[in-house]
Design goal:
Elements (H helix, E strand, L loop, with lengths): L2 H10 L5 H13 L93 E2 L2 E2 L1 E5 L4 E2 L5 H15 L9 E2 L19 E3 L4 E3 L2 H4 L20 E3 L14 H5 L7 E6 L11 E4 L3 E7 L2
Parallel strand pairs: 3-6, 8-11
Antiparallel strand pairs: 1-2, 3-11, 4-11, 5-11, 6-7, 8-9, 9-10
Length: 289
């Protein structure tokens, strides 16, 4: 897609509801966009359904337009235990079964890459691919997101329009009163990077440490983003209680409140700065999973 066509899409998108968003995602998958089925080494490109009422929706590998009720690993947001777990070189378990070996040049189950070196700058660290992160180019009123599911679909739509790989796996860094962002985002052993290649965090532990290497202030199309971001989330990934989370991001009252961060910050304020009125328009942080 040309930059002009992308700009025209973005003029229309803020008014899109979930049906329009899902239709756009289906279109991009149908025309062979860059891979909603590429393995991430942890979640199997599935998603956890949110508390917004989409818990029965099944992720479709064909259309890439809906969530799954589980990640295929038993726990949302956590890397599969086999992902780069064989760094010690142990090739067999107590039962004698062959185990993946990180560094042997073979991409085994549980690995998303294996480049036989220790250089993370090539996009592969501990047999785990880098995961992209961006701040959405569009801003949304907090009570109109249509829940966690709706926020995730908005991230996926923007990733699809920007032709980002694995667009169907993106989720918003967003908590509500029942679900923590930490339970929705992959706890990766690899790096989180901006779409321009700058490193945000070396791994999950670094991401939730309270300090980022670079601010998440770049959009899906690699343009600078300024201002507030809806998160409802503390920097450790847990819900920022003290408000209604904009009625779990699907309310009717613009004067309810939800937690927000500041995208230019690299300290703890990146994720939570204060509670803001839900009628305000803010971006979302979107994470590849």
């Amino acid at each position: 897609m040309t930059r002009t066509k992308l700009a025209l899409f973005l003029i229309y998108l803020p008014a899109c509801g979930l049906e329009e968003i899902e239709a756009i995602l289906a279109k991009y998958d149908t025309f062979g966009s860059t891979g909603s089925t590429e393995s991430t080494g942890s979640t199997g490109d599935a998603d956890t359904s949110s508390s917004s009422g989409a818990s029965g929706t099944t992720w479709s590998e064909t259309t890439g337009v809906a969530d799954a009720s589980s990640t295929g690993e038993g726990e949302a947001g956590l890397d599969a235990s086999s992902d780069a777990s064989s760094d010690t070189g142990d090739s067999s378990s107590s039962t004698g079964a062959s185990q993946p070996i990180c560094g042997d040049g073979v991409i085994d189950p549980g690995e998303s890459c294996d480049d036989m070196n220790d250089n993370p700058d090539d996009g592969c660290k501990l047999c785990t691919k880098d995961r992209r992160v961006f701040a959405s180019s569009l801003r949304y009123q907090g009570f109109t997101l249509e829940g966690l599911y709706g926020a995730d679909q908005r991230c996926r739509m923007l990733a699809a329009l920007a032709m980002l790989p694995n667009f169907g796996t993106y989720r918003a860094w967003l908590s509500d009163s029942k679900t923590a962002a930490a339970d929705r985002i992959t706890h990766s052993k690899g790096r989180y990077i901006l779409v321009n290649g700058l490193v945000v965090a070396a791994d999950w532990d670094a991401l939730i440490s309270g300090t980022l290497e670079n601010a998440i202030d770049v959009s899906e199309s690699s343009e600078t983003i300024l201002g507030g971001v809806w998160t409802g989330t503390l920097p450790n990934g847990q819900p920022a209680y003290g408000s209604s989370f904009c009625e779990d991001w699907d309310g009717e009252d613009a004067f309810q409140q939800g937690g927000r961060g500041v995208c230019k910050q690299t300290d703890a304020l990146w994720s939570f700065y204060e509670q803001g009125y839900c009628g305000s328009e803010m971006a979302l942080y979107c994470f590849e999973n």
